[in-house]
Design a protein that fits this description.
Elements lengths: L13 E11 L4 E7 L11 E5 L9 E4 L8 E7 L7 H4 L7 E5 L16 E7 L4 H6 L3 H6 L2 E8 L6 H10 L6 H4 L3 E7 L10 H7 L1 H6 L9 E7 L1 H13 L13 E5 L4
This protein binds adenosine-2'-5'-diphosphate.
Length: 266
């Protein structure tokens, strides 16, 4: 797509990239892909600050990069907030539009913040799945862990589509398909719309249904690692659950058995 002329100058230390594609999943969720700046470096699981060139001082919001670091485009998964300072406008982007991206990436949801283990559990709600979309396509994930469990809980069935497509497309991926073969399990649920599996992930784990559905051993800090991404309340509850099972929060300075990051919310 051809870039359109801009009304405002590009701020310093900001990439101005072109929208390549946009996909709307529901009236609340959409994903988009932009061109990849040559010099962009990021760890899988990190976030960047995104804005639009529609003001002298653009509004920026944190967005987890959903694409792997080897991809020649950058993908994001976003909520649409009707009166959100950024997403009310961002949801209208079409191929050819310009999106601003601050050059620095950062975040705690990275493999280096975890000690080695056998099973990796990625726990997400809503757009909190985005960093895991990146990590699930990173060969490093499969070098470090034998099996990856991705949980995704949303209000409605249609909101689960992004995660279903992500996992379905993994095995046919020419770069990492073979590596991921038989090693990724998607476990999703809804909380507000009737579906095959209902309930918050906290309730499903606490009741034991999570383990019996999957036929797996209980979460164990000796062998398992957990990454958590969702709303503020979700993070608090899943973090408490992990800690009650003996998991210890890690960081780059001091790797541990679980890490958390708040999903983009408005
Ligand atoms: P619920 O419908 O019971 O609130 P949202 O779109 O609001 O971010 O929510 C995404 C999903 O996260 C919903 O299914 C929601 O369930 C669930 N959720 C919200 N709060 C929590 C929490 N504290 N612990 C676990 N799941 C949560």
């Amino acid at each position: 797509a051809e870039a359109k002329p801009l009304q405002f100058p590009i701020p310093a230390n900001v990439y101005a990239e072109t929208v390549v594609s946009v996909k709307h999943y529901t009236d609340r969720l959409f994903s988009f892909r932009i061109t990849r700046p040559q010099s962009l470096r990021f760890r899988s699981g990190e976030f960047v600050m995104i804005g639009l060139p529609n003001a002298e001082k653009p509004v920026y919001r944190a967005y987890s990069v959903a694409s792997p670091s080897w991809d020649d485009e950058v993908e994001f998964f976003s909520i649409k907030v009707p009166d959100g300072p950024l997403t009310s406008e961002l949801q209208k982007i079409v191929p050819g539009d310009t999106v601003l991206m601050r050059q620095k990436s950062t975040g705690t949801l990275v493999l280096d913040a975890l000690t080695p283990g056998k099973r990796l559990f990625m726990i997400s709600t809503g757009t909190g799945i985005a960093p895991f979309a990146s990590l699930l396509r990173d060969p490093d994930t499969y070098e470090r862990y034998e099996h990856v469990f991705l949980t995704h809980t949303c209000r409605d069935v249609a909101e689960l589509t992004y995660g279903q497509e992500l996992v379905a497309n993994l095995e046919s991926d020419p770069l990492i398909g073979e590596l991921t073969h038989g090693r990724v399990t998607l476990y999703n649920s809804t909380t507000r719309e009737e579906s095959e599996r209902m309930g918050r992930i906290t309730a499903l784990i606490s009741s034991g249904k999570f383990y019996s559905d999957l036929g797996i051993d209980k979460l164990d800090p000796e062998t398992d690692r957990i990454m958590i991404c969702g709303s503020m309340h979700m993070l608090k509850d899943v973090k408490e659950l992990a800690e009650s099972l003996g998991f210890v929060e890690g960081s780059l300075n001091e790797p541990g058995s679980f890490v958390v990051e708040r999903a983009f919310v408005g």
